[in-house]
Amino acid sequence: MTSSKTALILGATGATGKELLRELLSSNEWSKVGEYGRRVTTETNLPANRSKLEQKTIDFENLDAAGLKDGRWDVVFVTLGTTREKAGSAEMFEKIDREYVVNACRAAKTDDPKHDQRVVYLSSAGADPSSHFLYTKSKGLTELALARLGYADTIVFRPGFLKGGQRDETRLTETIFSYVTGVMSHFSPNVEIQVPVLARAMMNAGALGSSGLPSFVGAVKAGQEGAWFTLIGNKGAVLLGEQK
After folding, report:
1. With the C-alpha atoms ordered 57, 62, 67, 72, is the resulting torsion angle positive or negative?
2. Nearest C-alpha neighbor of 241 from the set 223, 216, 221, 210
3. What pLDDT was estimated at residue 164?
4. Catalytic residue at 179?
5. Which one, of 234, 80, 77, 82, lies nearest residue 158 by Cα?
6. Which one-letter DSSP state was computed for residue 107?
7. Residue 44 CB: number of other CB atoms within 10 A?
8. SS3 120
9. Has 139 been annotated as catalytic?
10. Cα 86 from Cα 135, distance rounded (Å)
11. Residue 52 in contact with residue 72, Cβ under 8 Å?
């Protein structure tokens, strides 16, 4: 690995995004880290080693003014997402969860054919473009849309239940579910993952690329004609995240 990679993270204020931002800033692998979003991490919540951080508040409805491609980012990490409850409606959920994500990644892609860029997207277990459920269908459609953008490498994570993240709010159903998955995790490695481990896995995947992933991760080729991507499931994410 070299020490000259640049990284853009979209969605750094969410549970996984917060941890990913810390990992990127702490690693010598990255020479510049961009945090672009509707809001950015406050000064008090940033680690001490933030000299290479570039923050910018952007309007996802006016991405032409955001200057996303100006950074010539080597890797674009996407941890941006929401829920129908937080979005307020199914229409707004799809706009934020899929439209904003795809449009921002399109805007971050450079016009230089010699610059190979990679996108690493945090999806969800059960993601399926044909799903009857809004959430998993949106994730599945987003995966395919990102794979069609023409990045040199597209890596998708489909983790299980996210555990140990720092959220701005407490979700009762998730608290209850965490106890259930905690028990189930003793019988299956595909049920849950600690958020810091997932963040480290995403960073490692971004640095290694699809061709550099260890075989024990169990990454597979997924998608469809014209929209292929590398898929990493929960077990693989745990194993990759445990690598320092």
Report:
1. positive
2. 216
3. 81
4. no
5. 234
6. H
7. 5
8. strand
9. yes
10. 13
11. no
Q: Which residues pair with 137 in a beta bridge?
A: none
Q: What share of the chain is helix, strand, coil (3-state, %, to 5)?
A: 40, 20, 40
Q: Do 153 and 230 touch, CB atoms closer than 8 A? A: yes
And the tokens for 3?
């020490």
Whether the full predicted model's pTM is greater than 0.85, yes or no, is: yes
> What is the rounded CA–CA span in Å between residue 174 and residue 81?
16
Is there a contact between 81 and 159 (Cβ–Cβ < 8 Å)? Answer: no
Strand partners, 68: none
Q: Tell me if 97 sits within 8 A of 82, measured CB to CB.
A: yes
Tokens read off for 243: 């690598």
**Residue 230 three-state SS:** strand
- Measured CA to CA, the distance from residue 244 to residue 240 in angstroms comes to 9
pLDDT in tens, 137-151: 999 999 999 999 999
Are the C-beta atoms of 18 and 44 separated by less than 8 Å?
A: no
> At residue 128, what is the residue type?
D
pLDDT tens across the length of the chain (244 residues): 455 899 999 999 999 999 999 999 999 999 999 999 999 999 999 988 889 999 999 999 999 999 999 999 999 999 998 899 999 999 999 999 999 999 999 999 999 999 999 999 999 999 999 999 999 999 999 999 999 999 999 999 999 999 985 544 444 443 333 343 343 444 345 789 999 999 999 999 999 999 999 999 999 999 999 999 999 999 999 999 998 7
The tokens describing 145, both together, are 């849309």
Q: Among residues 109, 139, 163, 235, which one is catalytic?
A: 139
**CA angle, 60 as apex, 207 and 93 as ends, to 5°?**
90
Q: Is 227 exposed, middle or buried (0-12, 13-18, 19+ CB in 10 A)?
A: middle
